[in-house]
Structures are given as C-alpha cells and as structure tokens.
Design goal:
Blueprint: E1 2-8, H1 11-22, E2 27-34, E3 47-54, H2 72-112, H3 125-137, H4 142-155, H5 162-177, E4 191-196, H6 203-217, E5 222-226, H7 234-245, E6 249-251, H8 257-264, E7 270-274, H9 283-294, E8 303-311, H10 316-327, E9 333-337, H11 346-354, E10 358-363, E11 372-374, H12 377-385
Parallel strand pairs: 4-7, 4-8, 5-6, 5-7, 8-9, 9-10
Antiparallel strand pairs: 1-3, 2-3, 10-11
Length: 388
C-alpha cells in the first residue's frame, strides 16, 4: 500500500493533488489544517494537508474497471457519508440489542402469568383477572396472588358461576391464613411468653392489652417482666400498667436475671416478658436477644412461647427481612399492630404464606384493653376481596 501526504491552500486543492498523483482509486485517510508555528506564523498562511493511500495491484486477481473521475465535492461528501453511516450502524446495533432484551423480558413476564393462555376463551376469565388485580391493590405480594389464582383456576369447573369462583378464592385465602395462634389459659400449665420485634411497633402496649384480658376475663395468676432497660421510661411505662392491674413486675438487666426472677414469681402460672426493640440489621442486638431466649433453664416449669410483634404498615421487603432474621433466633407467632393506620392489609396474607408463620393477634389503636383481638381470618379475606 502506498501512503503519501499532499498539501494545498484549500482542501479541494490538496485532494486534487492526491488524485492527480495516485489516481481516482486513492483513499483519503485524513484531512487536517496545518498552522505555522514560531515567530513567523503571522506572516505564513495556513495550508491543508491530505493523507491519501493507494492499494498496490501487482497481483490483482481481477481487472480494474474504468470509472469516471469524480469531482472533488463528491469525494469529500463520500468521506463524510461513510463516517455518518458507521455511527448510524452502531446506533442501529444498540437499538437492536435493546429490542431483543425487551422481547425477552416480555416473554418472561408472560410465562409468569398464572392464568393459562388457553383459558382466555372462558367466560369467567375477566372476572378472575379482576380478583387478581384486587389482591394486588390490597398489597398482596404478586407471588402470593399468583399462587392463589393459579390454585383456584385449576379447581374451577366449566359450569362455574361468578359467585362460586369468588367463594373459591375466599376459601383459599382463609386456608392460606391458617388457624390463628392465641394465648390459651387453662390454669394448669405454666407458660412464659416472650414478645420480640423491632422498635416502635407497640410491644409494650400490646402486652398491656393482653395482660388486661388475661387478668379481667380469665382471672389468670399473671406476672410481668421486662428486659427493655435501653429505652427511656420503658420500665416505668410497663410499671404503670402493672400497678393498674395489680400485677407484679420484675426487671431483667442481664440474661441470668431471668432464672432468678422466675424463682421469685414461682406462684404465678403465666408470665409475659417485654423485650427491648431490636433492629434486624444490628447483629449485636440480635445476639443479645438470642442469649436472653436461651437463658431459660432447661428444667424450667414454664413452657415458653414467642410472639413477634410487627406493624402491618411496614414495607413488604423490610417485613420479610425482619421475619427471616428473627426466625434464625426462634420459632414464633406473629402479632400485627397498627391496622387502624392503613387500608392495605395484604402483608398479613404475605407473611402467612411466604414465611409459613402462624398469625396471632391484631391491634388497631392505643386503647387498653379494647383495641386487640385474635385475627379474624374471614374478616381479612373479605377485606382483601372488597370491591370485587
């Protein structure tokens, strides 16, 4: 290949010089303006330098065709067009890649839809989709809604009515929620209940409500303990409730205090223990809670149970992380608080299905002992389907 540089006063003049010497087959590789340097640059004019290349044809396997000599403007235009085309091809490649990714994403989304494509011809199909949408609107997690609709769809008969389909979804939700776990008092078995969970969810108030119910309606021989010595006035808050209900209260400063307090309260058959609010992200706090739970003597007369207290208003992803972290510490039943602060109660169903945890009580206010009840699964199912 022959590569040479040519100069001219203008771009056209430099290109013409290259074409004259190398012929019309010459390829213009570069065009630049050269400015004079030094003290004399003010007296010298700028020149245009063109770098041209010509492929040598000593062993050319073909006969070169004779072509009409193009003018200089055409050569310059062709060079610029080639550059534009290269950029256009790159952009087209990028667009093609994005289109392929979008098509793949749409195909994956279609494969996740629980309702079979062949079902689209059935009359009740739009109604089932409306039920599915209503579950999502009530903050039921998409995977849970998919599972419920898919299981109901497989059981629907050809002659099914809309009422029977709605009833099937209603029954499926109740089944997924399961039988709520509550505190059973028989006056025979000694039991100790730990209440754990994040800060600010209302553990102390929940304990006060349950203590009032056990004392007033079941006449339980009840005592209280608290290990929440971190929060200001936390002990005093529980002490106020204990004084009103005429219940003894013991404080746990160290895990070994639990055994000592149990001996002091040996005449009581039911003990409720308030624990300090613990962040699921704080490993040290979680280890302290684990140490407290494990400090219960193995030969203890009390049968232990644990309730995880969470707010139903917590974001789904955070709630899952909380449940998973505390599950590493112990088995528990879930108490949901602050139902009066939201219309989206889908998290109750989400946790029951995804975490395989027993649901328990719900609270909906600060009134003691009124604003607490065992979760009514039929009521929850109706609320999730309200509007269908």
């Amino acid at each position: 290949m022959i590569i040479k540089k040519f100069q001219g006063k203008t771009e056209k003049e430099a290109i013409l010089a290259a074409q004259t010497e190398l012929g019309s087959s010459a390829v213009i590789m570069n065009i630049k303006t050269i400015r004079s340097r030094g003290m004399l640059k003010l007296f010298r004019k700028e020149v245009v330098e063109v770098t041209a290349a010509l492929e040598e044809k000593k062993e050319a396997p073909f006969v070169e065709k004779k072509e009409t000599l193009p003018n200089i403007e055409q050569i310059t235009t062709n060079l610029r067009t080639e550059s534009v085309q290269e950029g256009m091809e790159q952009r087209l490649d990028n667009i093609q890649s994005l289109l392929e990714q979008q098509i793949q994403k749409e195909e994956e989304e279609k494969s996740e839809i629980p309702i079979q494509k062949e079902m689209e011809e059935k009359e009740w199909m739009p109604f089932l989709r409306m039920v599915y949408k209503q579950l999502l609107n009530n903050e039921v997690e998409e995977g849970c809604a998919n599972q419920i609709i898919s299981e109901v769809e497989r059981s629907i008969k050809k002659e099914a009515t809309l009422d029977s389909i709605l009833a099937a979804v209603y029954q499926k939700i109740i089944l997924k929620l399961g039988e709520p776990k509550k505190i059973e008092y028989d006056g025979k078995q000694k039991k100790i209940y730990f209440f754990i969970g994040p800060t600010g969810v209302g553990k102390t108030t929940t304990i006060a409500k349950l203590a009032s119910e056990l004392k007033m309606y079941h006449h339980a021989k009840l005592a209280l303990m608290t290990s929440d010595t971190y929060r200001l006035a936390a002990v005093e808050q529980l002490r106020i409730y204990a004084n009103i209900l005429e219940l003894p209260l013991q404080v746990i400063y160290e895990p070994e205090d639990l055994d000592r307090n149990l001996k002091l309260l040996s005449d009581y058959d039911t003990i409720l223990i308030d624990t300090a609010g613990r962040s699921h992200k704080n490993e040290e706090h979680c280890n302290e809670l684990k140490e407290l739970l494990q400090s219960l003597p193995k030969d203890c007369d009390y049968q232990p149970e644990v309730f995880l207290v969470v707010s139903v208003t917590t974001k789904y992803n955070d709630l899952v992380n909380i449940c998973n972290k505390f599950k590493d510490l112990c088995q528990y039943s879930v108490i949901f608080t602050k139902l009066d602060e939201t219309n989206g109660i889908g998290n109750i169903l989400n946790i029951a299905m995804l975490e395989q945890a027993s649901i328990s009580y719900e609270t909906s206010g600060q009134n003691v002992p009124d604003d607490i009840a065992v979760i009514d699964v039929q009521k929850i199912a109706k609320q999730l389907l309200r509007g269908v």
